Amino acid sequence: MPTANRHIVKTIAASIEINGKPEVIWQNITEVKIEQFSDPLLFRLLDVPKPLSAEIIAEGAGGQRIAYFSTGKKFIQEIIIWKPLEEYSFSFNPEEGFRVGYFFELKTGIFRMLKGAYFLKNQEQSTTLKLTTEYSIDKRYSFLLQAPIKIILKAFQRYLLHSIKKNAES
Predict the structure, then answer these.
(1) Contact status, residue 136 vs residue 110, Cβ threshold 8 Å
(2) In whole angstroms, what is the distance from residue 113 CA to residue 36 CA?
(3) In Å, how far are 23, 96, 106, 110, 121 from 28, measured between CA atoms?
(4) Which tens digit of pLDDT belongs to each residue from 137-158?
């Protein structure tokens, strides 16, 4: 049985209101710098690598962004959609051996990060920033892992969004 057929694909989303212009927020989602923020204790206990920064190597659809983590591992992200000030989506493409939670290998394991996307919606006084994350879980372990993975991913999304908000509003 092909591995891809054994995985259930799920998507979760979170959003936040930011008192900032889309131009500033766009800069903070494409060129991320959050190493100055402490990661939540839960992430340290569960061995979730701390994101440090990300940089665009080539803009536009088909371009590339590299996300750096405290473990020395990277996501080599391929840009899927690039609509400045509106939408930015990418595939995660974790390096071989990128582990989360001590034993979840993100590239080929039972839990995989597939795609992420940011959506900006400009309001009169603020901007709504929405983050979606597409992931997959091996069907054989879905019953056991679906709820904890969803809880941890939601917490991670909130951490990223609050870090972006702090940067954009400072």
Answers:
(1) no
(2) 24
(3) 9, 27, 25, 31, 15
(4) 999 999 999 999 999 999 999 9
List, in sequence order, the alpha helices (H) in the chain: 22-30, 41-45, 142-169
- Mean pLDDT, the chain, rounded, equals 91
- In the chain, the domains with their CATH numbers are 7-169 (3.30.530.20)
d(CA 81, CA 29): 14
What was the pLDDT predicted at 9?
A: 96
Provide CB contacts within 8 A for 32, sequence distance 6+: 51, 53, 54, 67, 164
Show the 3-state SS of 137-161.
Answer: EEHHHHHHHHHHHHHHHHHHHHHHH
Task: Please answer whether residues 51 and 73 qualify as being in contact, where contact means their C-beta atoms are separated by less than 8 angstroms.
Answer: no
Name the pTM for this structure. 0.90
CB-based contacts of 127, cutoff 8 Å, min separation 6? 17, 18, 20, 21, 22, 25, 120, 121
Each residue of 19-56: b (16+ CB within 10 Å) or e? ebebeebbebbbebebeebebeeebeeeebbbbbebeb
CA 149 to chain CA centroid, Å, is 14
